[in-house]
Specification:
Elements: H1 3-6, H2 20-27, H3 36-50, E1 78-82, H4 83-89, H5 94-98, E2 104-107, E3 117-119, E4 122-123, E5 130-132, E6 136-137, E7 149-156, H6 160-163, E8 170-176, E9 184-192, E10 197-207, E11 213-224, E12 233-247, E13 250-264, E14 268-270, E15 293-308, E16 313-337, E17 342-370, E18 373-402, E19 418-419, E20 423-438, E21 442-457, E22 463-479, E23 482-493, E24 512-524, E25 530-545, E26 551-570, E27 574-589, E28 608-617, E29 624-633, E30 636-637, E31 645-646, E32 649-662, E33 665-674, E34 682-686, E35 689-692, E36 697-705
Parallel strand pairs: 2-34, 5-8, 14-16
Antiparallel strand pairs: 1-7, 2-3, 3-4, 5-6, 7-8, 9-10, 9-36, 10-11, 11-12, 12-13, 13-15, 14-35, 15-16, 16-17, 17-18, 18-19, 18-20, 20-21, 21-22, 22-23, 23-24, 24-25, 25-26, 26-27, 27-28, 28-29, 29-32, 30-31, 32-33, 33-36, 34-35
Helix pairs in contact: 2-3
């Protein structure tokens, strides 16, 4: 063997046409270094790739380091709710979309204002775990609109390699609609049986030299009625997406969305330890006054530039800001006598509360070959700053109310306002990720993030720490449509600030290290049906109270389970989306002050959840389809002491769609019935809160394409 053969240097080579990077470049219109004929051939392959899946599934995700990858190349559980599913179900809320994925449950509050979600029993953090287009952390404290979204993705488990300090519940990614190649002008209208009504305009055009620029405008407004007494409100949306192919190597895009919701907020019910869990009352009752409003608005701006450096390397620069402001008159009903239903209503006032996220990222992706190994490399740097502020007033307490027969609550003025403790958190990091391919069958994925975290809250001493988060996965692809994987991840998450009731009040705790192991299999059938099965094991440290009444990290909960999902077309007439979760979660370590929690199931964690949604396209009547769904959440503990459990529930949805033409105008007519059996049930729980589900709602809609 010659010297040059024994010690060959790494060589840069064009990526295979099936490479995720080439597919991403081609789909974005960014192939520039290759000859025109080659670029055209790659674009053709992307079209074939995109058509392989069914209408209820997809062949690429845009979240974390797995941007634009086929789900079979992602060594974690991921779920995808497509635009087709959202349209078929008439989904208007995040919970309406995410109920199609296993392990999803509402936490603490109801869904009349916004959706507070947990996945696998782990809370999805409202300021860190929701992302716009795989990047910008938006603030989920107002119903996130779906009218301008193409799909909703969920990447479950630890995600610190790409997103910094986030809980291991998973990342919820909302992908916006992009400017279309052909003109779009669609007017959507709907009304529901309770008096709610809305209208939505979706408009898209390409313009400029050869259509190098494009806009997509989504505007919506409507009256909010959900079937509750003493409830009304309104919401609106303005969203603009703009793309610009500056030249053959540079593509720029920006998303701007502003939305608002001003509605009455129903009271939460507080469980009183020692009493029997109350049955949910009539799902139309509201224990708060109509004047107790939840008035919130959000503005999200995200800009991204993709620069093709060569056939094998691309640079991405992106920056954005998300800001949410709200005024809130939140109330809780506290039982005095469970037998008679007598109790008191406590009202809490918050004004000018604002949450702001500023995020920036630079990322270089490319490929090189070292001997028999092909490396697809990602190098990135990111910075995120989160701030919060606001004012609060002393709670108004002791207002007489009855659980079974709510009285009208007259308007009550707030007391003296004082500023909430402002907070500022900075999370900066650099990361490297290498997908190594050993021939056609084996892939090894290895990455690490080095981060610097700083937390400042009020006058407390700032806390600062440096850390790293490793990630290792192995994928074996028996063939292009069947893959097996195993992964190990370590992730960091914030643990909070000691409250006034603790001896170390004001102390910022150090981040906790979560550890996750997962093995799984993914397959795509010939019809495009995607199947997934996985076993996961998550070890999550938790806060507790020590013998000296100090707020410390001293506990741990383990979450283990098997998750199954299937989505896509079953032949020409059927489409199906199904998921199931079988989980065993346990508190395995506690502090001395919390000994009674040892061995319990963590609060709001169901051992069984499943969902099934199917649509049938009637063969004899072109354009007509029928659909239905079942959504089950198992019983859940109201707190970590397991002092009570909310019962399991199953809701039913029904729907039908009909596509036709009125003259030259394509028209779609639709009806959806949610909670078809009008069941009374506890939708959310945790920290002793109880929240009821909404009543049966019939919604009819019509859309017109011009």
């Amino acid at each position: 063997m010659s010297s040059s053969q024994a010690f060959s240097c790494p060589t840069f080579t064009p990526l295979p046409k099936s490479s995720p990077l080439i597919l991403a470049l081609a789909s974005a219109g960014l192939i520039a270094a290759a000859p025109a004929a080659a670029a055209e051939q790659q674009l053709d392959e992307v079209r074939v790739h995109a058509e392989r899946g069914g209408s209820f599934t997809g062949n690429a995700i845009q979240v974390g380091t797995f941007r634009d990858l086929d789900p079979l190349d992602v060594p974690l559980t991921n779920n995808l709710v497509t635009r087709e599913v959202l349209d078929a179900q008439g989904a208007r809320t995040l919970h309406g979309a995410l109920r199609n994925t296993a392990g999803v449950a509402h936490a603490q509050i109801g869904n009349a204002t916004y959706d507070n979600i947990s996945i696998r029993g782990l809370l999805v953090d409202n300021q860190r775990n929701y992302r716009l287009n795989g990047s910008l952390p938006i603030v989920n404290l107002i119903d996130t609109p779906l009218e301008n979204k193409e799909r909703v993705e969920v990447l479950k488990g630890a995600a610190s390699l790409y997103y910094g300090l986030v809980p291991p519940s998973g990342i919820v990614n909302l992908v916006t609609k992009r400017p279309a190649d052909k003109p779009v002008t669609t007017l959507n209208t709907s009304v529901n049986e309770h008096g709610g009504a809305d209208a939505h305009l979706d408009f898209s055009r390409r313009y400029g030299d050869g259509g190098d620029k494009g806009i997509r405008l989504n505007v919506a407004a409507g009256r909010q009625e959900v079937g509750l007494e003493n409830y009304d409100g309104e919401r609106s949306l303005f969203a603009l997406a703009h793309d610009w192919r500056i030249n053959s190597a540079v593509n720029f895009r920006v998303d701007i969305e502003h939305y608002r919701k001003d509605v009455s907020e129903p009271a939460a019910i507080l469980f009183k330890p020692g009493m029997r869990l109350p049955d949910p009352v009539d799902n139309r009752l509201n224990h708060a006054g109509e004047w107790q409003r939840y008035d919130a608005k959000a503005t999200n701006v995200l800009a991204r530039t993709d620069i093709t450096l060569s056939e094998a390397w691309m640079l991405t620069l992106e920056a954005g800001q998300a800001e949410t402001e709200r005024d809130r008159n939140f109330s809780t009903f506290n039982f005095a006598d469970p037998a008679t239903g007598d109790g008191t209503l406590n009202i809490f006032y918050v004004r000018d509360q604002a949450f702001k996220n500023r995020n920036a990222r630079g990322e270089l992706v490319g490929s090189l070959t070292t001997g028999p190994v092909t490396h697809e490399l990602t190098f990135g740097a990111t910075t995120n700053t989160r701030t919060s502020r606001g004012e609060t007033a002393p709670a108004v307490t002791g207002i007489a109310q009855n659980y079974f027969d709510p009285r009208n609550i007259e308007r009550i003025a707030a007391g003296t306002w004082k500023a909430l403790t402002p907070a500022r958190i900075t999370d900066r990091g650099v990361y490297a990720f290498d997908r190594m391919s050993f021939g056609e069958h084996w892939q090894v994925l290895a990455g690490v993030r080095w981060g610097r975290y700083r937390s400042e809250a009020g006058t407390a001493k700032p806390y600062e720490v440096t850390s790293d988060s490793p990630n290792l996965s192995v994928i074996y692809k028996l063939n292009p449509n069947l893959s097996f994987y195993g992964s190990y991840l370590e992730a960091l998450e914030e643990t909070g600030v000691a409250g006034a009731q603790y001896a170390n009040a004001g102390e910022v705790l150090e981040p906790a290290v979560n550890k996750q192991k997962e093995i799984g299999v993914k397959a795509r059938l010939g019809s495009g049906m995607m199947l997934q099965a996985a076993y996961f094991d998550i070890e999550r440290p938790q806060t507790t109270k020590d013998a000296a009444n100090r707020f410390v990290i001293g506990g741990r909960s383990d979450y283990r389970g098997i998750e199954l999902s299937a989505g896509g077309d079953l032949g020409r007439d059927w489409s199906v989306l199904a998921s199931a979760l079988f989980m065993d979660a346990e508190i395995v370590r506690v502090g001395p002050a919390n000994a009674a929690q040892l061995g319990n199931t963590p609060q709001n964690t169901a051992k069984r959840t499943f969902s099934l949604f199917a649509e049938y396209r009637v063969p004899g009547v072109p354009g007509w389809s029928l659909n239905g769904g079942l959504y089950h959440v198992g019983e859940r503990a109201v707190n970590n002491l397991e002092q009570a459990h909310v019962p399991s529930y199953t809701t039913v949805s029904l729907g039908t769609r009909y596509a036709t033409k009125w003259g030259a105008t394509p028209v779609k007519l639709q009806a959806n019935l949610d909670n078809a059996t009008d069941r009374d049930y506890w939708l959310g729980t945790g920290d002793n809160y109880l929240a009821a589900g909404l009543p049966r709602t019939l919604r009819v809609a019509a859309s017109f394409e011009f």
